[in-house]
């Protein structure tokens, strides 16, 4: 059943009520894909399946999953950018096929699309990440691209997650490094949340905040291990992505894992579409956010470098000017979410922080 997980009941004695939705089965490891038929049976969801994937991933992992589902009624559907139009198109396909279950095989965009479609149609979905590139694999939030920038919407968390470390380890290292950067972003996301708590009175969840922070700390402690593209690295990063997603589910918002560095990343995506991976842009935003907070931004940069993630606009293939623009205009994204990027940064200060990124 889909729920508004921020629902507040106007009760006279106690005015809070929150549904925290979590995945039921989480299978991580070598050849985890082979468990998919058994997982579907265990979930007790019988009926037509919509197999959702990206153009690239459908040809590889998507095709393998289709093979494993042989004998069951399966309709396949490809997803592109995650916009409301695209969501509508997938919803129509699911309705037409009478789907009772979506299996989403791919990167963050495929999984977010499945989350929103399953929420809107009130059907279940299974998340099969093909890369450890983002921490949306388990969360109950989805990020949708609109003309006004990315919006974070309530969505359905997966009923099951199947993360095959063999598959994930064969994805390009760039994707794994991006996932690590998306986790390292938790450092500034938390600082921003605490700042907003102090300055605007925004409520914080200590549990969500602490889980988010510990997740980033464990990942950084293992930075050398995750600098390789092997199953050990995939295992470590998938667990971190899962944990970060759960922090978001506890909070009922992406706040524990998305602060000013994400607003910067979403603005950068608007200014230079498709140039950087989501996690890569967030990593750069984290260095900038930490600099603006007066924290150990060089420490963040060192961790990102050890993992093999980009740390300058040049690494990302964007100009310094575009980066400055993204710093200045990050506040336009989700203006209700107060962060260090919403404190009136001058152009001079934005130029200075972007120049600092190149300091040795
Ligand atoms: N809902 C949430 O809580 C969160 C949502 N997100 C969203 O997720 C998206 C970013 O996710 P990404 O995975 O970075 O982007 P993506 O879904 O665009 O995938 C990036 C690229 O990786 C390729 N790819 C995936 N698996 C591969 C494999 N095994 N081998 C070769 N190529 C492979 C895809 O084809 C694609 O070209 C953004 O839309 C972002 O807003 C990110 C974090 C959290
Ligand atoms: O990317 C996220 C956490 O890593 C969450 O997405 P939003 O920034 O769209 O809320
Ligand atoms: Zn993110």
TrEMBL record:
Alphabetized HAMAP family for the sequence: G1P_dehydrogenase_A
Residues forming coiled coils: none
UniProt pathway annotation: Membrane lipid metabolism; glycerophospholipid metabolism
Catalytic activity: sn-glycerol 1-phosphate + NAD(+) = dihydroxyacetone phosphate + NADH + H(+); sn-glycerol 1-phosphate + NADP(+) = dihydroxyacetone phosphate + NADPH + H(+)
Keyword presence, Oxidoreductase: yes
Pfam families given in the database record: Fe-ADH_2
Record note on cofactor: Binds 1 zinc ion per subunit.
Keyword Lipid biosynthesis: yes
Location in or out of the cell: Cytoplasm
Species this protein is from: Methanocorpusculum vombati
Matches recorded under NCBIfam families: PRK00843.1 (NF002022)
Residues where NAD(+) binds: 108-112, 130-133, 139
Protein purpose: Catalyzes the NAD(P)H-dependent reduction of dihydroxyacetonephosphate (DHAP or glycerone phosphate) to glycerol 1-phosphate (G1P). The G1P thus generated is used as the glycerophosphate backbone of phospholipids in the cellular membranes of Archaea.
Superkingdom in the source lineage: Archaea
Residue spans crossing the bilayer: none
Residue positions binding substrate: 135, 182, 266
Alphabetical UniProt keywords: Cytoplasm, Lipid biosynthesis, Lipid metabolism, Metal-binding, NAD, NADP, Oxidoreductase, Phospholipid biosynthesis, Phospholipid metabolism, Zinc
GO terms, molecular function: glycerol-1-phosphate dehydrogenase [NAD(P)+] activity
Listed EC numbers: 1.1.1.261
Family per similarity comment: Belongs to the glycerol-1-phosphate dehydrogenase family.
Stated name of the protein: Glycerol-1-phosphate dehydrogenase [NAD(P)+]
Cofactor(s) needed for function: Zn(2+)
Leading EC class: oxidoreductase
Primary localization: cytoplasm
Residues annotated as binding Zn(2+): 182, 262, 278
């Amino acid at each position: 059943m889909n729920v508004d997980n921020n629902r507040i009941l106007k009760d006279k004695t106690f005015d809070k009520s929150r549904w925290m939705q979590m995945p039921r089965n989480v299978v991580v490891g070598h050849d985890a894909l082979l468990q998919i038929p058994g997982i579907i049976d265990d979930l007790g969801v019988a009926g037509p399946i919509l197999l959702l994937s990206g153009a690239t991933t459908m040809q590889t992992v998507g095709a393998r999953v289709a093979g494993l589902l042989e004998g069951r009624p399966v309709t396949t559907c490809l997803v592109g950018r995650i916009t409301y139009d695209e969501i509508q198109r997938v919803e129509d396909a699911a309705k037409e096929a009478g789907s009772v279950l979506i299996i989403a095989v791919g990167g963050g965009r495929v999984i977010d699309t499945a989350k929103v479609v399953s929420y809107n149609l009130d059907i279940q979905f299974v998340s099969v990440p093909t890369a450890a590139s983002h921490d949306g694999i388990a969360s109950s939030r989805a990020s949708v691209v609109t003309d006004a920038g990315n919006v974070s919407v309530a969505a359905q968390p997966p009923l099951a997650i199947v993360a095959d470390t063999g598959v994930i380890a064969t994805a390009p290292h760039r994707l794994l490094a991006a996932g690590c950067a998306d986790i390292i972003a938790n450092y500034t996301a938390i600082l921003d949340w605490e700042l907003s708590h102090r300055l605007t009175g925004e409520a914080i969840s200590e549990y969500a905040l602490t889980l988010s922070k510990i997740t980033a700390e464990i990942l950084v402690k293992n930075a050398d291990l995750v600098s390789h593209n092997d199953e050990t690295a995939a295992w470590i990063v998938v667990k971190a992505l899962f944990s970060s997603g759960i922090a978001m589910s506890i909070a009922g918002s992406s706040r524990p894992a998305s602060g000013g560095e994400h607003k910067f990343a979403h603005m950068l995506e608007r200014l230079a579409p498709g140039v950087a991976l989501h996690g890569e842009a967030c990593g750069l935003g984290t260095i900038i956010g930490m600099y603006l907070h007066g924290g150990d931004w060089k420490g963040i940069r060192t961790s990102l470098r050890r993992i093999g993630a980009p740390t300058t606009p040049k690494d990302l293939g964007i100009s310094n000017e575009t980066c400055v623009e993204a710093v200045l205009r990050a506040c336009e994204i989700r203006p209700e979410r107060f962060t260090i990027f919403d404190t009136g940064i001058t152009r001079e200060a934005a130029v200075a922080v972007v120049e600092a990124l190149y300091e040795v």
